[in-house]
Predict the structure of Tetratricopeptide (TPR) repeat protein.
Amino acid sequence: MLLTVWILLCPQTLSARQWQMHPADAYKFAQKLYEQQDFQAAATEFDRFVHFFADDDRAPDAAFYAGMARFSMQKYQQAIDAFDRVIRSYPGAKQAIEARFMISRCYQKQNDIESSAMMLRQIIRQQTDPKIRDRARSQMAWVLLKSGDISRARSSFLAISEKNQDRYNVAAIVSSLDDPDEIKHKSPLTAGLLSAVPGGGYLYTGRFREAGVAFFLTSALALASWQCFDEDLPALGALTGLAGLGFYSGSIAGGVASAHKYNYRQSQHFIRRLKDTHGPAVSLQLRPRGAMLAIHGSF
């Protein structure tokens, strides 16, 4: 929309240059900017190409790479809008399929796991090509794994068609997911119970400094409160007692939280190790100069 407004406001400057440019030259210029990682300028030039040469065979690629340039600049909402235009303008093209995969990745970057998975489910529902559907299932499984939803991730891996399971290392991945020794786990309940002794929950999860601080502060405040009451200073004793109770309660809550954080770190470590061991799938990815094989490893 901004591009259209700018074109309307500056017709003489832009039209004189663009209408005299051959489509091949305009596309090569946008390509060069993209390959030089001048993504802002590349996005603008790809947008211009689509506007002035909408009937050119390269228009779907240009529209797609206008979105890719914005994705590379980490402007994820703008990238989603650009990829959505690809889907609406070229619904039957291969670029529309890639645009859906990229929208899913944009949502992942925004930590919107449900929207990312929903887009992948849409691909599975709408596409008939088993390779595309299995690629979406594999990516959805990795997205769910990253969010910590191991059960749904396992189901997504197992939904991959039998003939493509070797390609996505399904058997090895599911075997690792089913092995209880693969992911170390700390019980939040146990951490809470151990926190009855100040710092016990932190000690259980290996956070020794926090354990020492919690034990020292809670004990010091309890001792100070007792001394105040012993010296007939009830107001000060009540104040230090309340402070000590606050630290004690915080120590219990912190111990439980530390168990959850420990489990999350272990889960993420397990996922990274799983990726390093089995790796993501190799799939077709578009490039400005044509199609090439690429590794989809950023989920």
Notes: The chain has a mean pLDDT of 84. The first helix runs from residue 2 to 9. The beta strands are 282-287, 290-295. Residues 199 and 212 are 6 Å apart (CA to CA).
